[in-house]
Amino acid sequence: MDMRMTFSVGGTLPVRRLGLGTGGLVGPGYWGPRHQDPERSVALLRRAVDAGVTLIDTADNYGPDVAEELVARALHPYPDGLVIATKGGVVRTGPDVWHIAGRPEQLRAMCDASLRRLRADTLDLYQLHRLDPDVPMADQLGTLLELQRAGKIRHIGLDSVSAAELARARELAPIAAVQNRYNVRDRACEDVLTLCERTGTAFLPWFPLGHGALAGGSVDPGADALTGVAAAHGATTGQIALAWLLHRSPVLLPTPGTGSPAHLDENLAASDISLTEAELARLDGLAGGGLSVDT
């Protein structure tokens, strides 16, 4: 295993840096299943693990419940070395309709439900999907610490936080991972990445392909650097966008989602692309394109 392509989450869970997200296994607006036949999603999850993926990122509200249940159906009993990351703290009530739910009793119930769906005794990485502005941060993280002490959570993560929030959270609990929006065009969270690098915190960039815009060729005319580098490598723009993330920082762990076996293979092949310093400099100039979309 190429050590440049691995990272140890929380210092105890070594993973290949290019993983698989499960948002692509559910329907539009993260509602219901993507495939009418769940065996297609089961086969894709198994294909990913067979190809060497050791980090699966999911969430209780993908579906809701659907993605976690598919992960368990496909991969349980989990092979040694496979890390399952999930999220709680958000309740989805319809396609693209959700609300934050970070009260201690809600987080405890969500964690227990994820354990049941994933058929696990311990959640490798449990990420607070959003900080609840109506609940003190100390109460939310204190609840996760209680769950950690009870053996239900191995490592704690946060989703969509500012650098200031991350710094404050680190004073309250050991934070092993952050999941923020970040890609070759959207680097608004550069300060969060800098803090993660300084503290050895995993950074799982969500929408690493700009919600598909960087993979489907729908980049704007000003993004000729991306298409030019892709052409030089005989690769797709999506592969170059993922390769850039892997080169950008050793703490970046992209987990692109897909429901397509061909797209999965294409994504995973990005780890074999070696970008030159000149190519990296060209791609670095793409910051600020604004291609990503909020969840």
Describe what you observe in this structure.
The structure is a single chain. With 295 residues, the protein is α/β, with parallel strands linked by helices. It has two domains: 9-179, NADP-dependent oxidoreductase domain (TIM Barrel, Alpha-Beta Barrel); 210-288, no CATH class. The chain is built from ten helices and eleven strands. It has helices at residues 38-50, 66-75, 104-118, 137-149, 163-172, 190-199, 224-233, 237-248, 261-268, 277-284, and strands at residues 6-9, 13-16, 20-21, 55-57, 83-88, 90-94, 97-100, 123-128, 153-159, 175-179, 202-203. Strands 3-4-5-8-9-10-11 form a seven-stranded parallel beta sheet, covered by helices on one side. A two-stranded antiparallel sheet has the order 1-2. The chain has a two-stranded antiparallel sheet with strand order 6-7. The longest helix is centred in the middle third of the chain and has 15 residues, at 104-118. It is globular, with a radius of gyration of 18 Å. The two termini are 34 Å apart.
